[in-house]
Write a structure and sequence with these properties.
There is one protein chain. Strand 9, helix 6 and strand 10 form a beta-alpha-beta unit. With about 300 residues, this protein is an alpha/beta fold. It folds into two domains: about 170 residues, Rossmann fold (3-Layer(aba) Sandwich); about 90 residues, Rossmann fold, CATH 3.40.50. Bound molecules: zinc ion. The site of zinc ion has 5 residues, from loops.
Length: about 300
């Protein structure tokens, strides 16, 4: 575990479309948390799933971040350039018999995998059958101290089950790529939406299997739209625009429970917000509806 005087945070969007207000909140939070600790803030493009991505999205997302003066350190890391590293991590797990091949169909499998293929001797010709690769989880507890939500624990076998690290379509799973890249980029602090909270025990367990160091985690309330569903690119949430960045920043700060500074100058407001950033003020809840945040002051 790294101390705060060595802080490296990151924002890691998947380029399935432009950033919407929910992703802006996550970007602002991780940016302010890093800057308030004089840390570095990296951007990683999680472009591992081409069928779900838009080729123009990475450039649009980077332009949106620049519009909001969320300026990152160093080069943007594209996961599509990291396939060799994921393959090496997968091989290391396979060599130690920590994985198994699974033939189960995804939509027939309950969310906690029941271990169907775990001990099956696949005598049939696996090479010709599409299989996913699952990591064997231990019957143990995995816990961590979330900087916002406090102590969180899961029983890996009951709550999570053996999980996929390489999909049937041969694409590396999000869980594997994130863990390998957080270690590669020496990430010390992960600040992200609570929609990823369930991924955290998987990532901690994978970290342990790969003997990587574990970052600190903070999970933010996810922003729900007026319909009560998470704002998402799939649900065509409106992209953020640079027409009035100050009002969107104010709204994001409000969502994060932070002091909202009444300044018309965007740059100044962002800088002061980094000085004032207090993670203790972030609501300790998994979600917030956008209706609760919007008020007339912020519409201007
Ligand atoms: Zn299976």
């Amino acid at each position: 575990m790294n101390s705060d005087n060595h802080y490296i945070g990151r924002f890691a969007p998947s380029p399935s479309g432009p950033l919407h207000f929910g992703s802006l909140v996550a970007a602002v939070a991780s940016f302010l948390d890093a800057r308030s600790k004089n840390g570095q803030w990296l951007v990683r493009m999680e472009d591992l799933d081409p069928p779900r991505e838009s080729p123009s999205a990475p450039a649009v997302i980077l332009k949106q971040l620049k519009d909001f003066e969320l300026v990152w350190d160093g080069q943007v890391l594209f996961q599509s350039t990291r396939l060799d590293a994921y393959a090496a991590a997968l091989k290391s797990l396979q060599d130690r018999h920590l994985t198994f091949q699974c033939r189960c169909s995804r939509n027939k499998t309950p969310s906690v995998y029941p271990g169907t293929c775990r001990d099956a001797a696949h005598t049939e010709n696996l090479a010709t059958l599409p299989t996913s690769t699952r990591l064997r989880v231990d019957p143990c507890e995995v816990g961590f101290e979330d900087r916002i939500l406090g102590r969180k624990t899961w029983h890996l076998q009951h709550d999570v089950g053996d999980f996929i690290i390489r999909r049937k379509d041969r694409l590396f799973a999000y869980q594997l790529a994130v863990v390998v890249d957080d270690a590669y980029q020496n990430i010390t602090h992960v600040v992200r939406g609570s929609d990823l909270l369930d991924s955290t025990p998987r990532q901690i367990f994978l970290n342990q299997c790969l003997h990587l160091s574990q970052p600190n985690y903070a999970h933010l309330p996810v922003i729900l739209g007026e319909d009560g569903f998470k704002l998402s690119k799939q649900a065509m949430a409106r992209p953020i625009s640079n027409e009035n960045p100050s009002s969107l920043l104010k709204l994001a700060l409000k969502a994060l429970g932070q002091k909202v500074i009444d300044s018309i100058d965007y740059s100044e407001m962002l800088a002061v917000s980094a000085l004032n950033w207090d993670i203790e003020r972030v609501p300790k809840t998994l979600s917030q509806n956008i209706i609760e945040l919007t008020d007339e002051d912020l519409q201007k």
